[in-house]
Specification:
The protein folds into 3 domains: about 120 residues, Orthogonal Bundle (Helix Hairpins); about 60 residues, HSP40/DNAj peptide-binding domain, CATH 2.60.260; about 90 residues, Sandwich (HSP40/DNAj peptide-binding domain), CATH 2.60.260.20. Strands 6-7-11-10 form a 4-stranded mixed beta sheet. A hairpin with a 2-residue loop joins strand 6 and strand 7. The protein is about 30% helix and about 25% strand. By secondary structure, it is of the alpha+beta class.
């Protein structure tokens, strides 16, 4: 979730008094008011930011809490904290029950509402409108979006799978589609936290576990394929096990170790079009015979002499 600098939005110093804050707010609100900028989406978004900043900085309790958050957030950044890693849970609005907020569109619904940052810290509602101090009735607020992590195997990512997620008194069956990658997010609408305006959404962050045989790169798969020495020298066929079963691979004569063969359409399903698949790249791994007989050793020596090798 993005941290919002309300002082910067209003263009005032952090030690600005109530009079300075009000003056800056009125000036900016007049400049970006929708009536002055009809049809200007950028001005409308700026106007909403200004109102939100004023809502916090003109309220002593909200401002104190915001200042405490800002100090902690600044220390966290100075210590090397990366975007997305800050712990917002301790700053949740009262009554939210420790629900984890995520940075997602329409977190609390309504294009005219506050940002997810404001809602997560202070909850919904607004004291004043443009240039005034009237009290507005708090509109219904959607429950928070909730997110969690889920590990799946490569085979599950290939075929698609299901997981059961406990949400307190509810158990949600989540379908994970074929083709997901590490970092994919599965959204289940209306299964997040409860709110006065309905439930938020549930998001599952997918992590695909490594496979002992296959290496995944995007929608393509890579694997080593054992090829015996005689097939590598004379040509023939090698068996390649894929995620859907074995296929036969033609090996041309004099195939060198590490040569890679492309098997079209034998990779992972494409997430947006699961009927399409990536490719499988098979790397030839030449295997040598063992437990040679005396006669076999004699023949190998003769072959080595023919090739000019000294043994």
């Amino acid at each position: 979730m993005e941290y919002k600098d309300y002082y910067k939005i209003l263009g005032v110093d952090r030690n600005a008094d109530e009079k300075e804050i009000k003056k800056a707010y009125r000036r900016l609100a007049r400049q970006y008011h929708p009536d002055v900028n009809p049809g200007d989406a950028a001005a409308e978004a700026r106007f909403k930011e200004i109102n939100e900043a004023h809502e916090v900085l003109s309220d002593p309790e909200k401002r104190q809490k915001y200042n405490e958050l800002g100090q902690q957030y600044q220390r966290w950044q100075q210590s090397g904290g990366q975007a997305g890693g800050f712990d917002w849970s301790q700053w949740g609005a009262p009554g939210e029950g420790g629900v984890q907020y995520v940075n997602a569109e329409d977190l609390f619904g309504g294009a005219g509402g506050f940002s997810d940052f404001f809602e997560a810290i202070f909850g919904g509602g607004m004291r004043g409108g443009y240039g005034g101090t009237r009290t507005a009735t708090r509109a219904p607020v959607r429950g928070a979006n909730v997110q969690g992590d889920v590990d799946i195997t490569l085979d599950e990512a290939f075929h698609g799978t299901q997981r059961l997620v406990d949400m307190g008194d509810r158990r949600i069956e989540v379908k994970i589609p074929p083709g997901v990658k590490t970092g994919s997010r599965v959204r289940i609408a209306g299964e997040g936290a409860d709110g006065t305006g309905g439930r938020g959404d549930l998001f599952l962050n997918v992590n695909v576990l490594s496979h002992p045989v296959f290496e995944r790169r995007g929608d393509d798969l890579y694997r080593d394929v054992p090829v015996d020495l005689f097939t590598a020298l004379l040509g023939g066929e090698a068996r390649v096990d894929t995620l859907t079963g074995p296929v036969s691979l033609r090996i041309p004569p004099e195939t060198k170790p590490g040569r890679t063969f492309r098997l079209g359409g034998q990779g992972m399903p494409r997430l947006r079009s699961p009927q399409e698949r990536g490719d499988l790249y098979a790397r030839a791994q030449i295997t040598l015979p063992d437990k040679l007989t005396d006669r076999e050793r004699e023949l190998v020596r003769e072959w080595a002499q023919l090739r000019g090798a000294s043994h």
